[in-house]
Amino acid sequence: MEPSSCQWIINPAAGRGRVRRRLPRLLQEFAAGRIPGAYRLTDRPGQASGLAREAAERGARTVIAVGGDGTVNEVVNGLMGAGNPELCLGILPWGSGNDFARALGLPPQPWAALELIRRALESGAGRWVDLGRLGERYFVNGLGLGLDGAVAWRNSRLKRLRGEWAYLWGGVREALAFKDFPLVFRTPDWRYEGPALLSGACLGPFQGGNFCLAPQAELDDGRLDCYLIEDLPILERLWQMPKLRRGSHLQLQQVHLHQASWLSLETDRPLPAHLDGEPFILAPGRHLVQIEARALQVLGSANLCRCSPRHDRDSV
After folding, report:
1. pLDDT averaged over every residue in the chain
2. CA 198/CA 105 separation, integer angstroms
3. Whether residue 150 is found in the same domain as residue 288
4. Please, which residues have CB within 8 angstroms of residue 216's CB and are 6 or more apart in sequence?
5. Active site positions, annotated
6. What does the alpha-carbon distance between residue 184 and residue 194 come to, in Å, rounded to a whole number?
7. Where does a domain end: 115, 131, 147?
8. Are 202 and 141 in contact (CB under 8 A)?
9. How many CB atoms within 10 Å of residue 235?
10. Which of 8, 66, 105, 268 has the fewest Cβ atoms surrounding its Cβ within 10 A?
11. Is position 313 within any domain?
């Protein structure tokens, strides 16, 4: 691959400073010519989208996001804004959660992941994956609202804890405090109206660092895994939390999972939410979530990771 056709976008703040600590060694690799392409560093939230689109418009064919799921989300939205279906995404997963990288089967060891990317750039190995879309915003791994949105907000404010422990701590705190909300949830084949604890749509099985919310999810099956969990008593929330981590929660009566091409969510109040782990507030009203099948090429491992066991209750 020609160096000019590859752009690395590095978020030094990702992983609560993890990328910044590894940056000197990474830049040495660039200086020594062992990594092809050019790099840009971000210095503020949201900047990666503009850098990715700018790189694509200058002729880059592969853009590699160095950071976590939030950095990947920004880069993907920049690439989709460029309107070139031949663009390819690479990921060096050095963030806190890295749920999308895990679903792709990328190695969790930081320098092993770099070596995989280096080999993939030489061979062109990769695969097509689906994208989800909420309005004009794309996501690669998942949309969540309610309790899991509140966990994302809490996690974004933590200073010391990071990674899986941060999400686990946030999950426990919000399980104790979060109040249910009225929701109208509709897919082509199922409808629910009533109180909910959390809801959303997944492309990959993992959310929040290591919670297997959608055990059946596959990144390239052309379907959203749409989930809804009705309200539970506080102690029951804590008791059932390990099942959400293992992906064995689908047997619970209050849990509903439906695979569909679209999902409609309607709420009468602002709700804490996240796209690929990045928190935002979902405004009151009706919101349509859609799938764009095989919309993006991703460089690297072709081995997709799923959690188990798999269950079929409520699956369409």
Report:
1. 89
2. 27
3. yes
4. 205, 225, 257, 259, 306, 310, 311, 315
5. 278
6. 7
7. 131
8. yes
9. 10
10. 268
11. no
